[in-house]
Design goal:
The complex is a heterodimer of chains A (174) and B (312).
Chain A: H1 2-21, H2 35-47, H3 49-67, H4 73-90, H5 99-121, H6 128-158
Helix pairs in contact in A: 1-2, 1-3, 2-3, 2-4, 2-5, 2-6, 3-4, 4-5, 5-6
Chain B: H1 5-13, H2 22-55, H3 61-98, H4 100-135, E1 147-156, E2 165-168, E3 181-184, E4 189-196, E5 201-205, E6 212-217, E7 222-228, E8 236-239, E9 252-255, E10 272-280, E11 289-294, E12 303-309
Antiparallel strand pairs in B: 1-2, 1-12, 2-5, 3-4, 3-12, 4-5, 6-7, 6-9, 7-8, 8-11, 9-10, 10-11
Classes of the chains: A mainly alpha (174), B alpha+beta (312).
């Protein structure tokens, strides 16, 4: 468990740096990928709700610090995102191949809506049009493209040692 | 033999709750409770951070903590930015290559026009110096003579999809303060400083909805207010220009260095802002609709100059 915490801490730190310095500069189609959200989704799906919520809080804190944004804003959104994705991974999405793609698609839209709502609440002048109409379609597409490699990488890093694949159960015929 | 239907229905129809193992049930409910407590505590902590951050001043504990974390992240961001720069340049070169032909035509037109203006300006500048000396004219702070330029690398290119803001690698210890104007390496207006930490500063770009600056048409001396247009992208509008004022396509727009009323502008006069792309008039509007294209290229800005007044 401690090893996973350390790994998650390092991975999220590196991802925040990459998001700030590299990923946010590439904007094909008006939007840029959210590598941090994709990584958080992958970790939460693999490790569950509690781990997802704590990782989300930490990721949000680093993001707000790096961008000099209102402290706690991204933490709140990413905590909720990590928690709900983790719950989905523990319940309905467990062992489903499409779970990461579905989770990323849904959480990208909800995170954008949540971000817009939070910025309105704290009184930041934001443009809903630029966020939801101009940037969101490209962001969803880019996040979905990143999902498979990021999830595969996170699965290698965060696979549980004792976890076994689901077994088929054969009912007795006699 | 008659079948006893009533007994069978009674057996299949009734829902019988399977007795759960007491140990398994309590473990599950304890895990669920723990999960909810953790999520609740983190949400409460986030809300406390937001509230505390709003209530305290810029020198408060949370701002200091944020500055500390930003300082730790800073060298990693600069390092990553430098590693990625060749790839970003290649990406910029490729995307620029697509528009190279049409841009070439525009630039040729612009060079011809600027050559004509430059020859006129040389004579005017000479006359200006002579007249100032003769009148012992006292002017306000002028750009760039009365400002020190602090060069800063861009460490965060776009904070989120709703706001046009960047973070640069110069902060309070470098003398940067809120509202300092920021220009690119060619001297075109990029935005202004909206937040500072000890070693970094947040810059609100010209294309953000929050941004506005008084500006004037250099060719016709018509004054207005530059702000972000309603449409998508990086287009700006020169607002509050009455219909009887003259503004033409391809005119250059510079900062006016003044504000409506008695207050001075945050920006010195004569920082290049943009070029007029379209001028329209409608019967129902008392102002002209003037679309301005910014001169700064926001998609590839990697280094900016924060202009700090020399007399600070």
């Amino acid at each position: 468990m401690l090893a996973d915490v350390v790994k998650a801490g390092v991975v999220i730190f590196v991802v925040v740096v990459l998001q700030a310095a590299i990923v946010s500069t590439v904007e094909p189609g008006g939007g840029s990928a959210d590598l941090l959200l994709v990584t958080l989704t992958a970790i939460a799906l693999l490790r569950g709700a509690v781990f997802g919520a704590v990782t989300g809080f930490y990721a949000g804190f680093l993001l707000d610090a790096a961008s000099l944004e209102t402290l706690g804003l991204s933490s709140l959104l990413l905590t909720l995102a990590g928690y709900w994705i983790g719950r989905y991974g523990e319940t309905t999405g467990r062992d489903r191949v499409h779970a990461p793609v579905l989770a990323i698609g849904v959480v990208t839209v909800l995170y954008a809506l949540g971000g817009l709502g939070m910025h309105y609440l704290v009184g930041d002048p934001v443009s809903a049009r630029s966020g939801l109409v101009d940037a969101l379609p490209a962001e969803i597409l880019l996040n979905l493209i990143l999902t498979i490699p990021v999830y595969a990488l996170c699965r290698r890093l965060f696979a549980r040692a004792g976890a076994r694949p689901a077994m088929e159960v054969e009912f007795g015929t006699n | 033999m008659p079948r006893n239907r009533s007994l069978r229905l009674a057996a299949l129809g009734s829902t019988v709750q399977r007795a759960a193992s007491p140990a398994y049930s309590s473990t599950r409910s304890a895990a669920a409770l723990r999960r909810r407590i953790v999520a609740g505590v983190l949400v409460a902590l986030s809300l406390a951070l937001i509230t505390g951050y709003f209530r305290e001043s810029e020198n408060g504990t949370l701002h200091d903590a944020q500055g500390g974390v930003a300082t730790v992240l800073h060298p990693f961001q600069v390092g990553a930015e430098r590693v990625a720069r060749p790839f970003q340049d290649a990406y910029g070169w490729l995307s620029g290559f697509m528009h190279a032909k049409s841009e070439n035509e525009k630039l040729k037109e612009r060079i011809t026009r600027l050559e004509q203006q430059a020859s006129q300006n040389i004579t005017a500048a000479r006359e200006n110096v002579e007249l100032r000396q003769a009148l012992r004219y006292k002017s306000g702070p002028t750009f760039p003579r009365d400002y020190d330029a602090i060069a800063a690398e861009v460490t965060y290119h776009r904070l989120n999809e709703f706001q046009e803001k960047i973070v640069v690698a110069a902060g309070r210890v470098d003398g940067v303060r809120v509202n300092d104007p920021v220009v690119d390496s060619a001297g075109h207006l990029v935005g202004n400083v909206s937040k500072t930490s000890p070693r970094s500063a947040q810059v609100t770009l010209l294309t953000d909805g929050e941004f506005a600056v008084s500006a004037y048409d250099v060719q016709t001396e018509t004054y207005g207010l530059i702000s972000h247009g309603q449409g998508a992208g990086e287009s700006l509008i020169l607002d509050l220009v009455l219909k009887d004022k003259l503004v033409e396509k391809n005119d250059l727009i510079y900062t006016a260095g003044r504000r409506a009323g008695q207050l001075p502008s945050l920006y010195p006069k004569n920082i290049a802002v943009g070029i007029v792309k379209r001028v329209g008039r409608s019967d129902i509007d008392i102002y002209q609709s003037i679309q301005v294209e910014p001169l700064a290229d926001f998609s590839s800005v990697s280094l900016v100059l924060v202009m700090v007044p020399k007399d600070r």
